Amino acid sequence: MISIKSIIFLGILFGFFIANLVLYIFGAFHLITNIEENTCKMTYMFEYPQYVRVSLDSEIENSYPRFGLYAYGEGFITEKLRRMHFTGIPVLFIPGHAGSHKQVRSLASVSLRKSLKDHTPFHFDYFSVSLGEDYSAIYGGVLMEETIYVSYCIKKILTLYKNNMDSIVLIGHSMGGVIAKGSLLLTPIINASYANIIINLGTPYYPPLIPDKTFALYYQNIKNKMNEINKVGVNVVSIGGGPRDILVTGYQSLDPTADINVLSTNVPDVWKSTDHFSILWCNQLILSIVRSLFDCVDISQKPPRISNHIQNRLNALKYHFLHRAAGKKLYEYPEKIQFESDGEWIENGRKQYTWNSSVINYRKPSPIYLMIRLDELIDHISIDTVNLKAKDWLFVCSVSAVRRQSRYCEWGWNLTNRTRLVPDHQYRLRRTVDLSTNDLKVYKSISHILIRIPASELDDRVIINVDSYKKVDRTTSLKNGISKLVLFENFDALKYNLIETSRGHIRYFINLHNIRNGITVELNHKVCSTSFQQSTIAILELIEPWVSTISQIQSLTDTGEKSKTFRLQTIYGFKNETALLRITVSAGCTCNFIIHRNTIIDQLSCVIRDRWPILYSVIISILLLTISITIDHKRSQKPTLIVTLALSIMFNTIIESFAVITFLCILSVLTCCAVVCFGSVARNITVRFLARAITFSTTWSDWLLGGLNQLPFITTVIALSLASATCGALVMILTVILYFLKLTKMYEECLEELLMNSLQQFAWLTRLKIRRKKTNGNIRKNITTQLNLFLLWLFAAVPAIPSALVWAKNFSYERRLSTEDPVLLLSWVIIISCGTLDIVQIPSKYMGLRSEVLANVIRFLSWVILSTASSEHPASYHCHLPPVIAGVIILIALNYLIPYRNKH
């Protein structure tokens, strides 16, 4: 009898596991649904888009019938393309998996419109490749095929220009960015010198899934050969989508070999987070990309082409993606500036003040110079400007003379390139800068920071805010501990970290120590002066250590919402780094900010976003652990459970482990329900499928299916023949269906046993009753064991899905998948053979030392797989799991086949 205490304990434990799974599901749902609004403008074409097919050599076309190369055109340009008349600078767009060659239209249309509007002496020709428009690029074999085809396309495009062009610009989206680099590095057809610029949009440098070894080797080979791209001077730009992109996170898009890594949230004049697909049509971002390409062109060459000077290209790219603080075209800041002698020089001794052109009466046609004296009592100076359009406006200088009782400088060092644009709710030009006096010591004998306001801008309501301070006085740290122990944001909770600002203090810094998931900033209270007429109360900038620029930027306005939530990245390689929140407050206001950690649901959503790839490893680990317990059922399992719990805590997988255990329990129950309720339906569907496939009647198909169950050797031969003729992954998936039918058959036999035992009152069935009664318990126990093996079979078949999809997509071209990973194929063959031969059995009889050794081996493998979840890139181990499962299957089969002799 089970005691009441045991029942209560089991109930509490079950409730805990259910609650953990529910929280996990809520976190996943919150991640998908609770994302910031898409504020990007849509990019439209000015004429109807046309895609002109560019034919490659017939041999190539026959070898890659699913792929295609297209040139993009609109209006009158299309006719020139049909004649294969190209006179511009070639750009090749490479879509990601499930992407289309038509996704090039936003870039191409904006570029075409700009060349016509600005009357430039050159234009860009945009090409795009069609790679099947499916999800096959996640499969290593097809990925290499696409790479080779793209390399042929690059070579073909350059031949269209009759030796006038020797390099091309590559723009890749998602996996297309990986293919762009692979086409230059991994094929003998072309080399890295064939490209000068690569711009990747939402490209995963660290892929979340690696289904096969070929895929892993592809990534590794690119990583090993990236120095070839650096040697020939190809400029690489990686642009991530920011918080809205939950498919490729900002950390995954970080390319250590790229010249520029930036999120769309920090691109000047963009400041928009884009999801994985809107990054292709976000007008603000598309404009920045197109402008950067135009500024990379050297018009002195005949014909004009992308500049051969690496640094010139890099300066243009950095200007538009990182440091644009002047106009929309590349501007080279002069190192020194000579000042006008007739300007008005104003030196204000206050540490904080606001200068407003609308309150002065100055009509001289000469500029105004605001002088900020460097003081040893301060170490930082922040300057915020509104409507100041001058390209060169910030300097450091040394006072050299006195005129009309005012000190002035004759010349100064230009610091304008250190300034940055920030968003403004009223769409005014707003620039800001933080200067450290220690950094300014490189300029010898300087005495002042100088702000220059041209006379032509005095009627534009120019506002200058100056704030001098010691940084330590403006820096605080978010307190340790969870400050909001609630599930949802609309619950009241204790709130910590009250930040109170002072009038004129425009800059504050908050160190986010031990914050791994996210924070919420609430504008609790504000008081603004009567002269304050802005709508932007504060600008919040999140600086995360994994990218040296601002990762997120948001504004708090007096008309909008009063709180902003930031989701940080959960970074494996930066555990000891601290993120920084920089707050810029409008000078006319004093505010109270409440800063606290996000809710548990928000924190869970961040964990799921960054750690969901480890779920597969945890599932396989728990399933193997369950099988080891089934094999060694005579021994106490408390040590095993304790060690597993300790390892889960050590490897930081406790949340995923609890969620997986609950999920597998529910899946087991659902599988049992499916066997009971839909077993006959599944069998009828299979019979009809066989009847249609081999043109038999349903009666003959039913007999054939029964025969396959009775003749496992014949089933194995048929399965292996089918695998060699088509695809091993396909047969692996089919064996899952056969395994389910096997469970259905076992359930029917168990029902038959129960029925026969219910008829024991009849004397003529007495002997049969005894025999059935003896075997009934074994059948039910065998069903439980086979259920565990079925779940292992089911998840072992998950990596087979990409291969099967590729085979189905290519079936009209070739019936056999020739690019299947040989390691995976061998794993499928082993699993299929052992399964169809029906030798994957766990004997109900305890075999002593043999059972103990086998269980320990499987248990150890389970823990090893669990440990991979704590690695920096856990997805890199996914391709090794099917061979491990195949090895476990062999051990279980051998344990069943080798006779056991009990010495006692």
Topology record:
Elements: H1 4-33, E1 49-54, H2 58-63, E2 68-74, H3 77-82, E3 89-94, H4 105-118, E4 124-130, H5 140-159, E5 168-173, H6 175-185, E6 195-201, H7 213-232, E7 235-240, E8 260-263, H8 283-295, E9 297-298, E10 305-306, H9 310-321, E11 336-338, E12 344-347, E13 352-356, E14 368-373, E15 380-386, E16 394-397, E17 401-403, E18 406-408, E19 411-414, E20 420-421, E21 430-436, E22 448-453, E23 463-469, E24 475-477, E25 498-500, E26 507-512, E27 518-528, E28 536-543, E29 550-557, E30 563-567, E31 579-585, E32 589-597, H10 600-611, H11 614-631, H12 638-650, H13 654-693, H14 698-710, H15 712-725, H16 728-758, H17 766-796, H18 800-810, H19 822-836, H20 849-867, H21 881-897
Parallel strand pairs: 3-4, 3-5, 5-6, 6-7, 7-8, 12-14, 24-26
Antiparallel strand pairs: 1-2, 2-4, 9-10, 11-19, 13-23, 14-22, 15-21, 15-23, 16-19, 16-22, 17-18, 20-21, 25-32, 26-31, 27-30, 27-32, 28-29, 28-31
Helix pairs in contact: 1-10, 1-13, 4-8, 5-6, 5-7, 6-7, 8-9, 11-13, 11-17, 11-20, 12-20, 13-14, 13-16, 15-16, 15-19, 16-17, 16-18, 16-19, 19-21, 20-21
